[in-house]
């Protein structure tokens, strides 16, 4: 959680349970499942390692699995909020657009014995982009972080989901809930057009990312994948607006968008023409500043370079076609200075098996925050069974995972090299086997590779795989903090 909302965050566990009945029932059903390694016919990496146990705090136990004959080390934190005053949260640190090392991010939560997190790991996926500012005559790169998919912090959507939803973990009241999340965003103005008496409403395409450039997946129907070409070896490559091969991706673009920048963004809004990947980003567009009451206080073009009003937001729009509700034109028509704008956000729990559960909206309420959502990629386990496939990302890369066992305890896990200077880990399928052997019934793969970081009492415990053994800046972190209420002795 951010420093400005720390006091609100500490009251999370005192708030009455807000998870919808259907969601809570699903979570209980999942927790009742029992992991049975034998049913999957697989052997865990843990079988070759020796366990060393430590108690971090009441309700938090840490285990390190290692061996002199193995190049990897598995670190596990088991978090049981029934046994201690423990919270389970995530944080984006100084801002939703500012990547930081996991230790620095956790330090924004607290650094004293009263407020510092006990244990934490790096969180979900994001991409770094670079603005180029030539106001001084020099091209100076400035890093910004953009969540690749779903992100919710303190009940506020900070990153939009894929159009078809995204594998995620919901953190609420000290427990994780594993599901797929879809987001729905909209903006309404009290300034209607001449031919209607109704308030004007339009969808919002995304949160805290550059208009026109979409990373990883479609977020709206209008997002179009960049063109591709096949090389002599049969490999497919995406092409940028100049026809050059892009090494990263996949990327999409949309020439008509409205993007919201929240008060947690952490820096000035981005300017046009930040990337050569897409032409849609070249549009000057329109930018609208909105105060905490929802009133428009300023309108400008070209967009960019604006501080987010405290408690307010900034909207950027591109697209000038009024007939198709182009984002820039809609803002010109309905978001003039003095207009009252109402921003709506929904994060919908689609269920891990979509055809077996009804969609349920998470009870987002920024006035009484209790919900964080962290994105992941591969589901590792579901209802006590391994669902990762043997051909899922077979690289022996460092890994980070989060899971829940049959007792409702949270598992934070890292798999990294034993020795400094090495980059070691396991394929996704082996990570799933490790989670199964730890007793997980549900588990999700988080960002890995050089991002994998396992922190206890503010110190990194794992070998870092980036050059020089330095921490890689990340988008968010998951941690067990101080707060909540353990059960009375003997109660369960």
Strand content: 35-45%
> How would you sum up the global shape?
globular
Helical amount among residues, as a percent range? under 10%
Mean pLDDT: 87
Q: How many individual helices? A: 6
Q: How many E strands?
A: 34
Could you characterize the architecture of this molecule?
The protein is mainly beta and 492 residues long. It folds into two domains: 3-141 and 368-482, no CATH class; 191-339, no CATH class. Helices cover 9% and strands 36% of the residues. It contains six helices and 34 strands. It has helices spanning 6-10, 21-32, 37-40, 102-107, 327-334, 428-437; strands spanning 50-57, 60-66, 72-79, 86-91, 119-122, 126-133, 140-147, 151-153, 156-159, 166-172, 175-189, 200-203, 206-207, 213-215, 224-225, 228-230, 236-239, 245-246, 251-253, 257-262, 286-290, 296-300, 313-318, 341-349, 360-361, 371-375, 379-382, 385-386, 399-405, 410-417, 440-445, 454-456, 459-460, 477-482. Strands 1-2-3-30-29-31-27-28 form an eight-stranded antiparallel sheet, sandwiched between helices. The longest helix has 12 residues, at 21-32. The radius of gyration is 23 Å and the shape is globular. The model is unreliable at 1-40 and 131-140 (pLDDT under 50).
């Amino acid at each position: 959680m951010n420093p400005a909302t720390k006091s609100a965050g500490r009251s999370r566990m005192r708030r009455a349970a807000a998870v919808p009945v259907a969601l809570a029932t699903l979570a209980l059903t999942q927790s009742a499942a029992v992991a049975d390694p034998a049913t999957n016919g697989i052997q865990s990496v843990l079988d070759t390692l020796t366990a060393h146990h430590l108690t971090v705090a009441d309700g938090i136990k840490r285990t390190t699995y290692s061996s002199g004959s193995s190049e990897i080390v598995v670190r596990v934190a088991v978090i049981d909020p029934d046994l201690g005053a423990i919270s389970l949260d995530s944080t984006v640190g100084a801002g939703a657009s500012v990547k930081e090392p996991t230790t620095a991010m956790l330090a924004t939560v607290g650094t004293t014995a009263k407020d510092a997190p006990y244990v934490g790991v790096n969180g979900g996926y994001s991409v770094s982009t670079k603005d180029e500012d030539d106001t001084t005559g020099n091209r100076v790169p400035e890093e910004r972080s953009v969540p690749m998919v779903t992100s919710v912090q303190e009940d506020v959507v900070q990153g939009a989901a894929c159009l078809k939803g995204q594998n995620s973990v919901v953190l609420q009241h000290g427990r994780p809930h594993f599901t797929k999340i879809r987001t729905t965003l909209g903006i309404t103005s009290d300034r209607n057009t001449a031919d209607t008496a109704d308030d004007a409403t339009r969808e919002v395409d995304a949160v805290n990312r550059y208009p026109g450039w979409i990373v990883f997946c479609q977020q709206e129907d209008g997002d179009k994948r960049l063109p591709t070409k096949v090389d002599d070896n049969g490999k497919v490559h995406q092409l940028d607006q100049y026809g050059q091969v892009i090494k990263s991706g996949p990327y999409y673009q949309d020439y008509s968008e409205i993007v919201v920048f929240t008060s947690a963004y952490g820096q000035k809004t981005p300017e046009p023409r930040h990337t050569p990947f897409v032409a849609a980003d070249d549009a000057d567009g329109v930018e609208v500043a909105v105060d905490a009451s929802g009133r428009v206080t300023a309108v400008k073009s070209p967009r960019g370079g604006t501080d987010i009003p405290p408690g307010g937001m900034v909207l950027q729009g591109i697209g000038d076609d009024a007939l198709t509700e182009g984002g820039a034109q809609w803002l010109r028509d309905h978001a003039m200075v003095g207009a009252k704008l109402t921003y709506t956000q929904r994060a919908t729990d689609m269920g891990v098996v979509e055809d077996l559960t009804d969609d349920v909206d998470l009870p987002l309420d920024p006035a009484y925050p209790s919900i964080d959502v962290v994105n992941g990629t591969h589901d590792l386990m579901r209802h006590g069974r391994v669902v990762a496939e043997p051909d899922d990302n077979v690289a022996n890369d460092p890994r980070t995972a989060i899971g829940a066992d049959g007792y409702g305890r949270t598992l934070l896990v890292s798999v990294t090299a034993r020795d400094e200077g090495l980059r070691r880990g396991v394929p996704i399928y082996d990570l799933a086997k490790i989670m199964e052997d730890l007793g997980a019934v549900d588990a999700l793969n988080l960002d890995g590779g050089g991002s994998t970081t396992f922190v206890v009492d503010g110190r990194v415990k794992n070998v870092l795989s980036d050059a020089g053994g330095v921490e890689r800046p990340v988008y968010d972190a998951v941690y067990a903090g101080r707060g909540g209420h353990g059960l009375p002795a003997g109660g369960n």
